[in-house]
Amino acid sequence: MQCYRDMPEFIAQQMTNLGAEVYYHEFLPQSKHFHPLKFFTSTASSMAVKPNGTYANFGINTIGIIRAPRGDGKEAIVLVTPYNSQRVQSNELLSLALGFSVFSLLSRATWLSKDIVWLSADSQFGEYAAVSAWLNQYHNPMFLSHPVILDTKMYGANKIIYGPDGTTEKADHMSFKRAGTMAAALIFKVGETRKYGDRDSVTMYAEASNGQMPNLDLLNVVHYLAVHRQGFRVNIETFSSLLSSSWLKVIAEVFQNLGSVLRKINPDWKLDVTVPDYVEGTANLANSMYNQALGVPTGSHGAFRDYQVDAVSLEYSPAFHLRNENAKSSFLLRGGRLTEGVVRSVNNLLEKFHQSFFLYFLAAPSKFISVGVYMIPFALLLAPLPVVASALADDSKAKGKSVDDCKTRGDADDLQIRGGSWKWLKSARVLLVIQIWAVLVSLLPYYISQIPSAMAIQYAVIWAVLSIIILIALYAMFGSPYCAGVEWKLLKATMITSITIGLGLMSIINFATAQLGALILIPMCLFSLPLKVQLEMKLLPRTVLLASNILLTVLGFPPAAFLIMKGLSKGSWTLDIGEFWSWMEFLWEWSSATYLYLFLVHLPCWLLCIHVLLHPCHPPESKVKQE
Amino acid sequence: MAPPLSPPALRRLLLLVLSLLITSVAAENVEEFTEELLLRPLPDRKALAHFHFRSSAPPSAAPSRHHHHFPKAIAQLVHQFHIKELELSFTQGRWNYEQWGGYDPMSTNYAKPPGVELWATFDLPLGEIDATWKNLTHTLSGLFCASINFLESSTAFSSPRWGFKLNEGNLRYGALPREAVCTENLTPWLKLLPCRDKAGIASLLYRPSVYKGYYHSQKLKLASSKSFGIILDQTLTVVLQPDSVRGKQLHSADGQLQPSWSMKDLFNRKLSGKCLVSKSSRVFFEIEKNIVDKVDKSGTEASWTNEIFVLSSAPDRVLKEINNMDGHSSSICEYDVSNYNEDAPLDVGVTWKLPLIWSCTPAPYHANRFLMGSGNERGSISLSFISTNMHKQLFDVSNDCSIKAVVFQVVPWYVKVYYHTLEIFIDGNNKAISEVVDKINVTPSEDKLFPGTLEMLLRFPCSMQSAALSLDFDKGFLHIDEYPPDANQGFDIPSALVTFPEFNSSRSYPETDSLFVSPLLRTFKEDGVVKSYTEVLLVPLTTPDFSMPYNVITFTCTVLALYFGSLLNALRRRTGEEERELKKAAGKRGLIPLLIAKLRRRKVDPVPPGSSPASVLSSKLLLKVVFVVVVAVAFHHFSNS
């Protein structure tokens, strides 16, 4: 272990030689925590985890700061190069070399107006952990500590780093230094895989937690400089399975033909999209939407976004072999120029990037779909729901009245109280019970995950069994929805109202989740009709309705949706409940709001939908008859 | 008791008394101007140059008196506003307290916060001071081509009682951290000098090299009293990276060696004579205490030439600091500019023979200030002190000794500091405020009226390694016209000032010339309480989308236009009249529509009379439109292909 310890020391030495201020930041790996609500609360309270006990294993970030010669030190630009201090790969060495060359250039720059911070993040516990630990210390430092205990226990290995006589230097290197408000951050690394092609390529990652994106201008700057100045090929993440899908190609051809016909009519209408463009754009867009909807950051830039700092990750994929020295130096030159260009662009900003470019989906590195465009389909999906709900409620009221008319006058008053205008209260109670169930189900993993040393599949089974038990228990306590005699129309109206509210709220927190959820939920809710009612219909509409009901209900069940999604993207259709558990674990560890959405909006709605489908329709009327 | 004086000594004493009398008499009547330049190598391969110009005017009864070379604008300003003391500084860049020292007269007096800082004490009744301050800011703004007038608003200045400088409530303090400093501020400053930058030491001020520096602080200090008249000190402190012999900047990566430099490298000029009206014109080359230490260790005496470095020319005089603490003290080599001329210009410089690494004496604590938290809602200001362990060398550290520190901080009103949230951590332990704070004076901010001022006297235990203070704040909302032009960058909190009253950085040098004491060395001697300014902070505040009003206006206009258009249309229309017209038209129509209309009217009587011709009309219109479109498309298609 000792031989790897000199890596931070070496980097620190190089930084010192450049005249930069250097310090080490030591951090502990973060343990897994169930905190799905973290994004609501402030980060300070939940992140302040006190280290207790001894830790043999801790990461060391090495940070260098160049003070802008004539700047006032109010703002800083952060450069991040992650590397694994335990096992340094040649590609990581290359990214450190790139970081160093840029840093050394900037240390001579007289044009700087913002300070430059170079964070060489120790990614032995993952790069996100390293960067977020540093950012947390930067923004929410803990003054309350027990330095003596910590020094002896945790930093026992320091002597190896600083040498026997470096006591004063150690104190200097251990004090945390800051450089003002962060203006932007750029994370760059060299990928492991070598991509064969004529040009080196750069992959941009931008999605932060809960679908937050950095300012689009930052991406545009990177893209422009990389493509038009340095000759890189710029990619964004994409669904490769969509690229080869034949049905997408068919759609693309239809669009292309349509476009070319339109173009013949008027050459000014540039509506034709070529097939490869369309397919690539769709695959990119789908990935962008998926990443935003998942709510999990795609890299360490997500840690910056939590502090409202624009950040983008660049992963270089060199087209050369890493042992090729000439290619390496040319790569360092171009990569360095790209980084310098981005730093210059941010440095020269007096204000910030324009405030309005945060909501977008990326369809290509240089193409985006703005909020003004993508809001429309969602609004159109959501707009009819209140109308449908009120229509259903009205319908049921009218029906209730007609029932009343049949009855004798004496019973009418009694019915008015029990059934009449307050009938919706019953369905609201059903909704409430189901919501309580959903909250309990969403909180269960906290307790289940306390069970030590179990397989993921065991956790998942416990979870499923417990949730079914809770549902049955709740029904036993409050009565099942069918016994209470709730009309299916009112139940459906309540369900539609609840998803309108749920989706509306979610669209504020994470738009992509709400949009993708709406695509499944809204048809599922609108199509749902009790099977018994369906029996009274004609054959053709009945089969169509039944098929769509079954399909949508299966799609709407989260584990089934997960399986289908996995099957579509990876092509493996093996059923493994444990994977669902680990997926959920992944979501709450990253404090994604999608987890909450799934269990507080999606799941109750799905259950209500099942209730509507299996509604016996007649019991309330038969009860009336009995009376 | 006193030993009998020998005749030569007696004569000398007599001469001294006489000369002193003469000078004092002369000082009362004659305006004086002195120019001085101090050069000093810095540990991080840079060089410090400090220009010091002093003009003094004797006290006079009439304000409109003619002056020989004392700037009349300044004299009038002093008389007009009854200024006792005034200090105005324009600074670009930050003083690096760790590398360039924090415990010498230069850093305590001439290290200033970025931007503009202005303070003044007035010789006026307390009620008139605020109004006078406002006028003063406008006058200075005009004099120095800077937006000092922004300090006029009562939200921008404060009146500290003891945190900044002890006073009787007649001191006003204001700072503009965002003010950009450039040549436009230097030119009016130079105009106050009798020779401007045409002759004398000021001729070294070659703008490209001065503004290329790492730190640039131009200061104007005024003091006036009935007894000595007005004294105007103009100083310019620059930290430069000397161009090395090879013509390119020596970079750390090129090797650890200190660069050898001279005035020619720093300013691209040589000094060819003094400003003729100046009483004295000198250049000093200061050799830091730590360098003297190292030189002494090498075995040679630290004069202008030794084993480690050599100065480019022999100084006229070498002054040693009077220091009774320990043996080592800094020394100053003095050059009299009047001995040099065009043919033999003065070019003071240093050539290093051996690589030397030294460090400057730091202040007892490094003070840093930073913001905590994120988001647009709230945050905290934190002030951290990290011990440099300097006082351990100076004092005998016993257990119950303590070090005083005074914190002075002005916070604009839109950063609403909750002073009760003050927390103090010493070495990681939360301490009760009463344990650490000896004296505190808080002037809470008032929205859109006054900034918040915090003056605090702290007492730290000597054994303390680090301390942190934190204050929570809420971010306020501004009215739309209170936003500055570049509001999206954020808002500045001016630098805080930390003073260590128990530490004095003053240095005294022996007075060799009884007739004349250098004003520069005199300032080194007086008022040397160790001070350090912290960083300026940038608080991101919620800023409205300033293009929003435009969007709203266009949107509302569209809606209004649509609404009024349709309303007007509905009001203007006379439906009865139109129906009659239509009927008439239908009556005049051809035979077939008439027939159809008649047929229909016979068949279904209750059909409203206007509807059937209209429907016929619309279907006809539709047909026509479809026909035209088809023709157009066909024409276009064929014409293209």
UniProtKB/TrEMBL annotation, chain A:
Q: Name one GO biological process term.
A: attachment of GPI anchor to protein
Q: Which InterPro entries match?
A: Gaa1
What parts of the sequence cross the membrane? 371-393, 430-448, 460-478, 490-509, 515-531, 543-565, 594-614
Keyword vocabulary terms for this entry: Membrane, Transmembrane, Transmembrane helix
- Give Gene Ontology CC terms: GPI-anchor transamidase complex
Protein name per UniProt: Glycosylphosphatidylinositol anchor attachment 1 protein
From TrEMBL, chain B:
- Keyword Membrane (UniProt): yes
**Pfam families associated with the record:** Gpi16
Question: What GO terms in the biological process aspect are recorded for it?
Answer: attachment of GPI anchor to protein
Name a single GO cellular component.
Answer: GPI-anchor transamidase complex
Entry keyword Transmembrane helix: yes
- InterPro entries for the chain: PIG-T (IPR007245)
* Secretion signal, residue range per the UniProt entry: 1-27
The residue ranges crossing the membrane are: 550-571, 621-638
Give UniProt keywords alphabetically: Membrane, Signal, Transmembrane, Transmembrane helix
Name of this protein: GPI transamidase component PIG-T
List the lineage, top down.
Eukaryota, Viridiplantae, Streptophyta, Embryophyta, Tracheophyta
